[in-house]
Sequence to fold (1722 residues):
Amino acid sequence: VPDEITLLKGTPFIGARTEVEGARVVLFGCPFDSTTSFRPGARFGPAAIRQVSDVLETYCPILQRDLEDIAYADAGDLLLPPGDSRIALDAVHQFTAQIVSAGQIPAGLGGEHLLSLPLIQAVHKANPDLCVLHFDAHMDMRTEYLGVRLSHASVMRHVSKFVDSSRILHVAQRSGTRAEFDAAANAGNLREATVSPVELRDWVGKRPVYVTVDLDVLDPSVFPGTGTPEPGGVYFNILQNWLVGLADCHWVGWDVMELAPTYDASQVSSIVAAKIVRTMLLSSTNG
Amino acid sequence: VPDEITLLKGTPFIGARTEVEGARVVLFGCPFDSTTSFRPGARFGPAAIRQVSDVLETYCPILQRDLEDIAYADAGDLLLPPGDSRIALDAVHQFTAQIVSAGQIPAGLGGEHLLSLPLIQAVHKANPDLCVLHFDAHMDMRTEYLGVRLSHASVMRHVSKFVDSSRILHVAQRSGTRAEFDAAANAGNLREATVSPVELRDWVGKRPVYVTVDLDVLDPSVFPGTGTPEPGGVYFNILQNWLVGLADCHWVGWDVMELAPTYDASQVSSIVAAKIVRTMLLSSTNG
Amino acid sequence: VPDEITLLKGTPFIGARTEVEGARVVLFGCPFDSTTSFRPGARFGPAAIRQVSDVLETYCPILQRDLEDIAYADAGDLLLPPGDSRIALDAVHQFTAQIVSAGQIPAGLGGEHLLSLPLIQAVHKANPDLCVLHFDAHMDMRTEYLGVRLSHASVMRHVSKFVDSSRILHVAQRSGTRAEFDAAANAGNLREATVSPVELRDWVGKRPVYVTVDLDVLDPSVFPGTGTPEPGGVYFNILQNWLVGLADCHWVGWDVMELAPTYDASQVSSIVAAKIVRTMLLSSTNG
Amino acid sequence: VPDEITLLKGTPFIGARTEVEGARVVLFGCPFDSTTSFRPGARFGPAAIRQVSDVLETYCPILQRDLEDIAYADAGDLLLPPGDSRIALDAVHQFTAQIVSAGQIPAGLGGEHLLSLPLIQAVHKANPDLCVLHFDAHMDMRTEYLGVRLSHASVMRHVSKFVDSSRILHVAQRSGTRAEFDAAANAGNLREATVSPVELRDWVGKRPVYVTVDLDVLDPSVFPGTGTPEPGGVYFNILQNWLVGLADCHWVGWDVMELAPTYDASQVSSIVAAKIVRTMLLSSTNG
Amino acid sequence: VPDEITLLKGTPFIGARTEVEGARVVLFGCPFDSTTSFRPGARFGPAAIRQVSDVLETYCPILQRDLEDIAYADAGDLLLPPGDSRIALDAVHQFTAQIVSAGQIPAGLGGEHLLSLPLIQAVHKANPDLCVLHFDAHMDMRTEYLGVRLSHASVMRHVSKFVDSSRILHVAQRSGTRAEFDAAANAGNLREATVSPVELRDWVGKRPVYVTVDLDVLDPSVFPGTGTPEPGGVYFNILQNWLVGLADCHWVGWDVMELAPTYDASQVSSIVAAKIVRTMLLSSTNG
Amino acid sequence: VPDEITLLKGTPFIGARTEVEGARVVLFGCPFDSTTSFRPGARFGPAAIRQVSDVLETYCPILQRDLEDIAYADAGDLLLPPGDSRIALDAVHQFTAQIVSAGQIPAGLGGEHLLSLPLIQAVHKANPDLCVLHFDAHMDMRTEYLGVRLSHASVMRHVSKFVDSSRILHVAQRSGTRAEFDAAANAGNLREATVSPVELRDWVGKRPVYVTVDLDVLDPSVFPGTGTPEPGGVYFNILQNWLVGLADCHWVGWDVMELAPTYDASQVSSIVAAKIVRTMLLSSTNG
Fold:
């Protein structure tokens, strides 16, 4: 456990206050990528999202809601040391727990997907009946990766140890081992990319929901700036529609992970991530 | 008003003559970007379009027409000084007026979208019953941007001062303020990205039409090389089909704006822009 | 004819053995691009495909097959001299003939599309009733390009001299001269991008088939890393579905050409190419 | 004159406080580039300097001083509208005047070189005996550029209207018109790149000095990320030594201009700029 | 021999007329790179040089001469087909011979170094006592490269068949085989990078001189945009001083080869090449 | 300790055999970067060095030696898991020990500088009188970095626990804390960038020497492709001359670390690294 949590303040996400108190949603960055298996650089994701967020308007014509209507804060970035996952996981867990205990919705900006683990852990502790929506290109259900148990390739495996598999829904995965796909098929908790927003909303129902978005669920043409791009993904409007469709659900936490801006010099991946964050800010506070 | 107009001659667009006289369509570059709000660089758009145009064939298998069948000229680039919008607007207006008075179709290559203003002004003067088709990701109906009235974010606001709102059709806009969207909804002159080519053609009817294409109407996966990319746009074939569908209309002017090639090292954005120019050359001269 | 064939060994494609003997499919690189008309660099394609292939899993959830189930080798790269097409064509032909005579399936990784010519020649010699599926943005039926007969723009013209036009099917071409399109229309051997996988499978039937994929058939948003990008192409899943649909056909040879990784710093084009190779490995060995 | 000055707070420069009060030096960003003649993008300079500054140590082994020993603040970025130089100049002037009147040293981060004009004006008003050191590749003594008087190519011409030419020293200029070079030669106020730090220090003597660094004085190999790169410049250590050599002078203002980070994907230009800022922070507070 | 020479007109080099007649120096582009051994792309060199040339002033403060004082033309680019060296060599030879027979100085912009061969051949025919200055990182004295005799790696070997070795001076080569270096050492016609401008001028004396600059003689930090970068080269000012030092010699032809702009997104390599062209224009016309 | 060491075979370094047995020097890649403090990506260093090595000749005109004259192997890359430094350090140590016990010279290709620790440990065990030459921009003498003890910022601190400070020479460091510089000044084991090759050779004398090159000792203009670039470094020829000057020393191990090729799209950094490897191969086997 870290002695203290250090937050680095930066340019806030468009329209966000920097004071956490009184906010309904608290954004915070998780700049860490040490277990990334292919291309590191997700540590630069949170800063990139904020830097480009100003190109967006605060108004969403689909939801017909405006960021100006809601209370959300950008707490800055957690200071996470490269090369030691345990320190990073502890810091994220501790900060998330603070937000949850204040009755706020934590919203993590990644950073590698492994950091969803402590976020979900802390949210789950306060919401034992939590269900989890997992948007991703990859199953992330490996037991280990090259001998390393705490890996971004095994994050949902770890989550499934405390959230029952029946309360986790994997959406649009298109890469994994045969064992991973067979297990999901058996459990019946995998939905293809053709799933409708209504089906997702109905699956969630009235349960408290945590939504974790590994942005590589998007097609690499839309989102090349990520560590492990996988061809054949969903287009922006599909993902946006899923998230808009959840606007009446009871959100208790969410994250947007795996932006690695170095690999997309056009900055489009960063802008896509920022627009997903805007959509989730508006959707998670609609209820 | 500038004392004289200077044209810089360069490699012409594929198949174009460089002599303006006798041409039905006159292409000219408007290398200016001083009011760009996010990422400048549209000044390099016209040169980039010409440079890559040779990768295309002159034949369009959809329209089954060939550039070799039509008379079009590439007049080169207007010399526009960075940092002074009024000089730039005056030069574009003056040159457009020359083309119009010669009975030719002016076709501007941008350059920022603000420069559509003097183009449309000059065309409107000769065609008081002009209607305007506006393809764009953004409404561009702001009254000002950070205190600057002549901005690429307000170009259609300025146009709407001399072309009645009922004769302007906004197509596929997905970004703007609540006020901009509400105004368009009230006026009924906004069409979603699902609009069909036939609807557009019917809206135009037999009226003289000016078609302004802000290329950021395209999805950033297709067209990252622009100043203010906005996720969730239309794909290439959609835009191409709209333009092909207008082949029987009475075109009196058009432009292709907001290519900023610096942000797309793959050159794909430039090639996309060039193919849109080819399509518009063929479509605007079909009638 | 070259005195000897030199193979440069490198990191093999994911899961491939390096010993050719005993393999059912033999991958080999053809790093050559001297006749590329617009942007050279396809010579770096084979190395790029291998370098990124490890980001993929060996399992394909669509075909529900795993690379671990099949015997395939990566023979390395042919040493081909820049600037002399005849030496390059001879080397590719000679090595392909060796593979064919060993009863193996040759699978070329390009490199420019011209190198499909010696591949198809060698395969055709052993399979006189060969049919050829040609996925491409371009017709490639020119008789010459700027006076050069052996050009990547004329490769299918050369193929049509020994494979009858009725046994060649062009799929999804969207660029060419009027003469090229008219000839294909007359011959009835051009299918639009809307063709279904079943139609392709039925066209092939029980005949031995060679599948040549010029990757620029894909839309440039998906695949910018190529020499002559052409807007308006097909998306990844379309191409993948076509190839998956051929899984019951009798494959006797195939190639994946025209990756030029220099033009896509995001590496996505290389990963797309690698996933197409994985799909074709699994599809071509399913029967 | 702007009604109010807006400051955008962001990640501060390494080690800087964000409260201006009590600081000896006040850094502030001037994100504006509308008159840039060749490649725009200097608007992104201030953010890039801050973003990478953390790669540096706070200690300078040459000066043997540490940033921790001095009081300096980062006030954030002035909100400057693209496309209207007068508004931008007014805002910079007004904010600089505030700092000067508080007895602090203003330090502008550019942004295009034109913005040095209001900085020097405000500093000069409080220091009528001001001398100016001008490090630059270009003379910047044009009377206008394409008809625009307020241009980054004419900034020193404007300065010379209120600071006597004898109190301006141009250092290491290597590009200009014959007239510009002849005028400087006649005035005797041009020093070649071979000038020693001691000569510069002696020229300044005990006078209050303003130091303006147009970073394109550096060779493009060291600093490609700028709007108008000019081959044949000075290397990093030369510039650093000049600035270190001024450590005993009486600094009353300074700026670091013309970083355009878009053109250097390696980020090296940004790091170079940040290290120059560190050197100037330490040097300007040594006396 | 080509039936006709085709010249593609483009944006001329800064200040150049486009009419060849009456010019003392005739610039022309040689966009060809088919024998490049490592990274192709020199075909884009001539266009890149012209495109950026406008960032330079026409005045050179070292030579104290201005481009406005001399008569030079930019004839455009020769149309050279990729993949067939003989056609390319013939076209360059034929056009150079035309220029030479008109008493003008031919100046080739590359394009790969192999194209210096026909340039020097044509100039030599008119000047049998020609001497050749060869600035390059590589010896270029191979007899063949992978079986190809006409290669950019053997260009000086071919030149040495008609210009006696004693009249060729290799300057600053730092890469080659032992045999190449031993041969040059024996012949005494290799000078290290420390050679002074005066030594070079004296070696030339009053003889007609052809100066061929393979730009990779420069250090890759200054000039990364080339096909075969070799660390440890000379800096810009060294090369510029050599060329300035030849201002009183009797120039009869020159070239600037091997810019491959694709590999330098900062455009600095292109600007460096353009400034070398400016220097050679002024130096070659001083006598 | 890992149960087994896995080596991934790839394209070998130019001219290297792949069989380790019988070689005097054994190259091997250490693709790991989990503790990198600023920009990760050194994991891609070894592959990049090999990929470009073919652009070099095997002959070095300075040493007048050829790689063909020496016996060296490229063992491939160690399989090192991201996110767990201990596993990585163990694997490198174990493999190095094997090489050392076979009487061969281990030569590590990085990868982050932390991996020099197990290399030096294993070499030191067999050579208790070992001295270490440390070329680097940074002191690397921190006790920890953000709470992580095993960090690339503390590698030399760890080395100094088993190699006495008097037997470590730091060369050309220009970044560190005041404490780091003061300690080195007191110990007298820091040499500035002006140190001559002869001084270095004399310091080594007849002792067995390990040479560790953190490539960021080079100036970022020469070598931008690294995780923590620091302006003001040495140029290529300086570093090369130091290494050439050690050709008569008794080398027992060496490494070349911290190439992160992602940050240099021009590939020049990779070629620089490859040429340094060539120089060290020749220098370390000369005695």
